Sequence to fold (641 residues):
Amino acid sequence: MQDPFVRIEGVSKLFGAFQAVRDVNLTVGKGEIFALLGGSGCGKTTLLRMLAGFEEPSAGRIFLDGQDMTGVPPWERPVHMMFQSYALFPHMSVEKNVAYGLKHERMTKAEREERVRAMLDLVQLTQFAHRKPHQISGGQRQRVALARALARQPKLLLLDEPLAALDKKLREQTQFELMSIQERTGVTFIVVTHDQEEAMTLADRIAVMDKGQVRQSGTPTDIYEYPNSRFVAGFIGSITSFDGRVTAVEGEVSRVDVPGLGTEIVARSVAGAASGQAVTVALRPEKVTLTRDRLEGPNAIAGEIKDIAYFGKDSLYRVTLPSGQLIAVHGVNAKRAEAGRPDWHDKVWLSFDPAAAILLTE
Amino acid sequence: MRRRPIFLISVLCFGFAFFYIPILSMIVYSFNGSRLATVWGGFSTKWYVSLFSNRQVGAALLLSLKIALISATMATILGTMAGIALARFRRFKGRLFFSGMVTAPLIMPDVITGISSLMLFILMAEWIGWPATRGFTTITLAHITFSMVYVTTIVQSRLISAERDIEEAAMDLGSKPWQVLWDITLPVIFPAILSGWLLAFTISLDEVVITSFTTGPGNTTLPLLIWSKVKLGVTPDINALATIIVLVVGIGVVIAGWLMNRAEKQRDRDARLAYRANE
Ligand SMILES: Nc1ncnc2c1ncn2[C@@H]1O[C@H](COP(=O)(O)OP(=O)(O)OP(=O)(O)O)[C@@H](O)[C@H]1O
Ligand SMILES: [Mg+2]
Fold:
């Protein structure tokens, strides 16, 4: 395997006594889109600012392409940043904004103009080249900021909530634009976002942050299917969780006793699960099958439908369990309504594969 | 509820009257044909004629303008540098002390500033033989000293409200801090610097107290000239001179206001255009 392009080693950042970033270890490969995902104030921007060189880590080191970045000022790093506020220069036209970084490159005037034209083409803003930033719309400003950051062909591009200011439709469209731009330029992207769907769509790998710490990093599939903690499981997608205690570990699976449920749950074991241990079992709505009759298999729980949200192609059922707990279950409406789909207050059975139940010890 | 506007309007009228009636009466009496300030002797423009043929007034005006131009420019350069240092370089030693020192002269009585400047010039003349005589140079130096404070205050407050982001963005794109200052910070705060210069210029132009302490024989600025003439009684040619000053200042204010208003409207139009184009 080739050396990681960005290596963050034990990086912490203190503001006075407040720890904004706490012992972060991450690697990002060349040409990857990497997402930093987390709630507001969890230290995403601070981590990005340390990569760009605006803040020095209080502890730890950052390597870029094998080179230690400690003490390297922002203007000497081959890293460009797209700011949360876009930070366009208000007194310069769109064209001048994009060209600004190029004055530090050894290139002829013609080459420079050619590069600016190519960048404006890339973000489809050629017709606005002579406008000032206050004469264009929010979405266009965002594209100018992207073109400006890409113009010097950085090795690494940092994007701080690049799509947060856009409305939903424009945001979805821009997500794909970003991905295709990344593919064409081959630049490594680190994208900060607090929107989990955006992270899943854009990124090759995701790091989930909470209170300055990275709780888990991996591919979107890893994070969604194999979360390592209650926090990550709850942060990405929706889950229903059951607190219980392991009664037995039998080879591949663990048996978990959940008080009040009337039956035990059989879930695929994880490393560190031992008999007698307090655990949480998390279930995703789409991994549970809802039927009128009890299905054969290790996991079957009785319940009563309390609520149905009908979306057309599918429905979301909320089912009351014997313990009084509510569980969300996803059902695909493969058949027409008259075929006898479960209805309000129907008694139903819920079943799921042991491999679909997520066992969490943390 | 209906009575309140009437009350407010009368207060407003009273305030305006209090402020503008003296100026109006001065303008009216500058066209007075009589030599006595209190007796109306028919309409005449002879005081304006006598004013323009008066060499003393011309020389004083020239000196005042020269001092105001040079001191405002120097004060703007020094004051801007101090303002940037105070607003941007956050962690230098004694920053709090320095910023307190900068604002103190704003509330210092002019007499104190005047006397201390005079003392300094006398001491310097004794110790290093410069300035040998007091006049243009000493007045200009004193004016730079006190008007610099205004520029610093304006620039500092503009920088504190300005986005730090755009400076960081420029640094991120490869510019060293001094290039950022030149390419980004100065152009963006230019309007504040300009208004600092204008303020320094006008303050210098009508300064009396500090000027009278730091001037020497034969160096009379316009305000000093008016002051010395008024001591012998208000003559109609002073009214004429004051009227011209009011007129010039008034035109300046109107032009500045019009320019600013126009720029704002242009911005609004542009913004609306942009949003419509995006839909
Ligand atoms: N210069 C600073 N001085 C002191 N505290 C700071 C500073 N910068 C950030 N913080 C604190 O560090 C924490 C993390 O801030 P950061 O900006 O990294 O959050 P974020 O994850 O980007 O949040 P958001 O999604 O809201 O942008 C916050 O609690 C913030 O108050
Ligand atoms: Mg942030």
Summary: The CA atoms of residues 12 and 22 of chain A lie 5 Å apart. Chain A touches chain B at residues 52-54, 73-75, 79-81, 83, 85, 87-91, 100-101, 104, 131-132, 134-137, 139-140, 148-149, 152 (CB under 8 Å). Helices of chain A lie at 44-52, 94-99, 109-122, 138-151, 168-185, 196-202, 220-225, 230-235.
